[in-house]
C-alpha cells in the first residue's frame, strides 16, 4: 500500500505513542486505585463505550459465548461492562504491564472472573505466534483508541500501522467483526487504510457538529469484516 494523503497522518507523533508514557500513566493509576479505588479514565468516555455495546446487542451477530478480544484494553473497563452484560469469553491485551495489572485488580475487586488479561505487543514481529492470546481467532475484535496510539509512535508510522493491520487480520475469525473507534482519523481516512484488507460493514452513529457549513464528528466508530 502506498503512502497517499489519506494514509499519512495529518497530526504529529507524540509521547502518547510511546510505551514509556503509558507505563508511567498506569503506574499513577495503579496507585490511585490502591489509594482511593479510582479505576481511571474511560477512553473516549462512557457514552462512546455504551454506543459500541448497544450496537453489538442490536446487531446480534456476536453472542455472549463468542470469543472477544479488546486490543489495548487499558484498565479493562470495556470488558468489565461486557461481562456485566453476559459476555463470558473475554480477553484483554495491552503492551503495558501496568495496564494489565490495573485491569486484573479492578476485575478482582468487581469479582469478575471471565476475563483473561495478558501482556502483548500487537505490532511486534511474529506476535501472533509469540503471544498465546494472539494465536487464536476471535469473533469480535475491539479497538478503542489503540490504532490512534499506534499512529502516534515516532518514526515510520505507516510501517507500524501496517503491522497492526496484519495482527487484526490474523486474529479476526472469518465470520467476525472488527470494531474500531478513533478520534484522530476521519471516517474517510479509516476506510482508505483498513479497506485494503477489510470491508466496511456498519458505521456506528456518533455525535456530530457543524462548523463553517461542514458537518463532522469528534469520534468515529466503524465496523469491518473480512473481504473474503
UniProtKB/TrEMBL annotation:
GO (cellular component) term, any one: cytoplasm
Main localization of the protein described in the UniProt heading: cytoplasm
Keywords, in A-Z order: Cytoplasm, Methyltransferase, S-adenosyl-L-methionine, Transferase
Alphabetized GO MF terms: protein-lysine N-methyltransferase activity
The protein's Enzyme Commission number: 2.1.1.-
Domain of life: Eukaryota
Keyword Chloroplast: no
Localization, UniProt: Cytoplasm
GO annotation (BP), single: methylation
Coiled coil ranges: none
Parts of the chain that traverse the membrane: none
InterPro entries membership: Efm4/METTL10, Methyltranfer_dom, SAM-dependent_MTases_sf
Domain Methyltransferase: 66-203
Family under the similarity heading: Belongs to the class I-like SAM-binding methyltransferase superfamily. EFM4 family.
Function of the protein: S-adenosyl-L-methionine-dependent protein-lysine N-methyltransferase that methylates elongation factor 1-alpha.
Protein name, UniProt field: Protein-lysine N-methyltransferase
Organism from which the protein derives: Magallana gigas (Pacific oyster)
